Amino acid sequence: MKRNIVIAAVTAAALIGGGTATALATTGGDEGSARQAANTRLSDDDGRADQDDRDDRDDDAAQVSSSDVTAPEAIASALKHTSGTVVSAELDDEDDSDKVVWKVDVLSGDNTWHSVSVDPSNGKVLGAHTDDEDDTAQVRTALKGSSVTAEEAAKAAAGKGVVTSVGLDEDGKDKSWEAETRKSGGAEQDWKVDLATAKVTADRDDDQDDDQD
């Protein structure tokens, strides 16, 4: 009703004055406008979240494509530089920079942890430093009696796609190597590699975690 009165008054003024008038009419639809604005913000947030997910996938795919050195090759190179037992290897940004390297964690015979950086383009060791870890005994226990190394686990998982990481899962009842692979289309998958047989199976625990998320 108020809207009609305002428009009628403006129209009458325009007719009397013989000119034109521009009316900015406010209505009682403020609640609807607020709802629309809120929906727009939510839509924008969802769009940004989807874009962030796509950017993450693109970054991961770029990391994979930028590496000419495979996980087993990176592990072999790290062991030539630092002797010991490789517990994990991961293709990742170096200190959150744009430079991608293989990061290989090596546990030496004197229980010292070493983090070795390997160039993904040529396999050369870029540097190494010692790390402080508090799970040494747990790792040693998990690997006791194991006949499959991290390098062998990475080779086994390579049949499922490009291996971007491999690491020891020393927690829980079922100890195993865990490997992540990525295919050319960008899809990634987690696998478990048996410590004794190198048999590769899908990581069902990871699938369940994804479903819960």
Automatic annotation (TrEMBL):
Biased composition (Low complexity): 155-166
Protein name per its UniProtKB record: Peptidase propeptide and YpeB domain protein
Superkingdom as given in the UniProt entry: Bacteria
Pfam families, per database record: PepSY
Region called Disordered, residue ranges: 22-98, 155-213
Keywords in alphabetical order: Signal
Keyword DNA-binding: no
Record's compositionally biased regions (Acidic residues): 52-61, 204-213
Signal peptide: 1-25
Compositional bias per record (Basic and acidic residues), positions renumbered to this chain: 42-51, 170-193
PepSY domain segment(s): 73-128
Source organism of this protein record: Streptomyces hawaiiensis
